[in-house]
Amino acid sequence: MTTRAKYSTVKIDTDIEKCREEQNWPKVIQLAEQLKERSPTFEYLAYFLIGEGKLERYLEEWAPIEANIHRAKVGLTDAKQFLELAASGEGKKAGVALDAYLLLGKLYFAFGQYGDCLNSFKLADLDALSEKKLPIRSLRTVAESFAIKGLCFLKESLNSSKYKKAEREDETLRYFETATNLTLLYLQELEKQQQNATASYTGTHSPQPPVTNKTLSPILEQALYEAPALLLRKGMALEALERYRSILSAVESQGIHIIRLKFLCQLAQLLLRGTLCNNYKPPNVNTKESPWKPRLYSSLNQFIPRNECEESILVLLVAEAMAVRHTVLSQSADFKEARLNAYQDATFVYDLLTLATVRWGQFALLQESFERAMKFSFEEPHVWRQHALSLITAGRYFDALGILKEVIRLEPNQSINCLLAARLCFENLDLSLKGTQFSMDAKNIELAHPSGLLGRCHVYLGIGYQLQSRNVVLKHEKLILNQYALQNFHSAVQVEPNDYLSEYYLGLQLAQMGHIKEALSHVHKALDLRSESSSTLHLLTLLLSANSQHAEALEVVEAALQEYPDCLNLMYVKAHLELHEDGGDKALVTAKQMLELWKTLYEGQTNSDMPECDRKSDTRSVFQLYTSEMSDKDSSSLQAHSMAASRVEHALSEVASSMSSFSPRPGPQRAWLLQMEVWLLLAEIYLAIDEPGYVQQCIQEATQIFPLSHHIMHMRGLLHMYKKEWAEAKLCFQNAVAINPQHVKSLQQLGLVYHYMGTQGLAESTLREAAKVDPMNHITWYNLGKVLESLGEYESAGSCMATALNVETNSPILPFTSVPLCFE
Which PANTHER family does the UniProt entry name for this protein (predicted)? Predict the structure, then answer.
């Protein structure tokens, strides 16, 4: 009989421990009562178990927060009585007093009695516990005890003096860190136990599946968050970084996915915030082992980030993988809430990833990430818009336009999406007509659903008409488009009188129409509204030169370069002004400075041997050169003029030999095109100072970058003209015009070469073609006058010369179209 009773007691003990680990508290209470009845010697152990069961069961339903304090004082009366019995002298003899004090501390925390809570932990001698291997249930209890002690210190510090608060912060931090380590270890051990139970269940014929344990209590979760947060509040960013690393290096366990995802995002935010500055240190893989510390990831080939760039992107890629893994693809209404929560987590990660990749120039990586995001972003305009912007940074402009059209469909009442599409058409796709239509759609949406962007809609419409006017040849069409542009810019100024961009574009439009004085007035207004705008200063410089104030224009551009020392646009204008005012020597110095500046700004992007994270990203709009003078944008859109196809083939055949071994330079091609333009500027200056040998060298350097540029062929033609090699010059200009029929400079020089070669009919028709393209160019009219004079048409020649003189008084040092498009 005694043996049977002893066996029964052992079995109850085993069942109780199993139920405690499974947190099956009703069963624990039931078994403890049985234990008390069958074996009076375990009376105080039973008291402890009943008190523990009642406490834990209550706290599962009502978390220990301030809002529940009054309810806890009523609902935990029985639990308190049983735990106090277990903590008595008899409980000490039974060996349950220490655990009872720890649970009493938790109970008093729920009561809001923080002093009694700390006293209980003091009686349990919590700080003196030795770091040794603990059972799973004890791991959780001790972890919660350290967490609660840290939270009590935080509560009490609110009413403490400044000095006492500082004194306790270190202790509080130590308690939270210990609680964090124990919590992570507890979760790992719990998952290990569950896996063993699952394996055992798989290998048996038992119809009952293993019990899935509840994992993380609100107290432990709060302690996890408080450890790094307290460091950040103290301004200890580097220590907070190490704490995040320590937590995230622990082997992941079930139930902590959301917390790890939040920590990954918080770590990325800390790195992106820039508070570490020069204090950043790579992660240290060597850590001290302890029975109270969790297992860490380890591998022989483990990647260790070397800098903030690598670590922030690595962390966010891991976060992306976690967020995408838990996204909900089903569109069923039953999963709406889960789908929304998972989508919000994922989009937060993608927004951070956008910041990190753009900062470090990893645009391709960002674009790939958004490609993956498409599978769970059905009908979600935010991710689609971000995807479109990532495609723009990757240079996939047509794909980006297609995505933006989808965003416009998803958000039919948002004018900003139409404006984005319009800007893309104007800035990158040379689709001025399509961009104008998008701008018109934006205006209509804005009128129906105002969002404060009506002024910008008029600005974009004006830009569209302005760009269209540059591409048409017929005088009547050009006049109508210019009037439409002018009307919209005037409307923009009326709607937004304090928007510098409206005044700037109104000034630019008036300048292009030859109204220099009015244009100057509006440019000065634009500068009053935003004095630091480089585009407005650029336009002011050209307007002063058009007003024959070249010295003043040079002063303005030099002052602008004090503010923008790395603006190639302004340096380009400065070189031409110096060439006009002071001869070639000063201009030559400026052009050489441009080459040095190009090396500083772009060499990192074009150096394929440099690690990607060390390359500089070009995000500054002052280097976006979209003009016919400083970019090759106009050569990419051949238009159907009356040029025979054979002439295009002839132009291409001239560089066929170099093309056989030609391959594009590494890195962004726009950067190389800028260097090509600088070489051509140098060639022009050397030609002006009678150094043909250097001209040839500069042309050769430019040819190695992009041999099919009509600008290079034009410069080669100028060199042949300098040498009076008319046949070779004619061929070069013909090639340039074959590639870009609207290149006015080549048409002008080709007409002049025809004139020198005696073919006056061809000279006249070529120059009249140039006048159709740009009727405001005085060189065209002067050359045409010379041709007509040679033909004996003196009256027409005089009229052309008079037109040249009239136009020259309003002609800037460079065309007004050389001012880059500006949207900000």
Answer: TETRATRICOPEPTIDE REPEAT DOMAIN 7, ISOFORM A, TETRATRICOPEPTIDE REPEAT PROTEIN, TPR
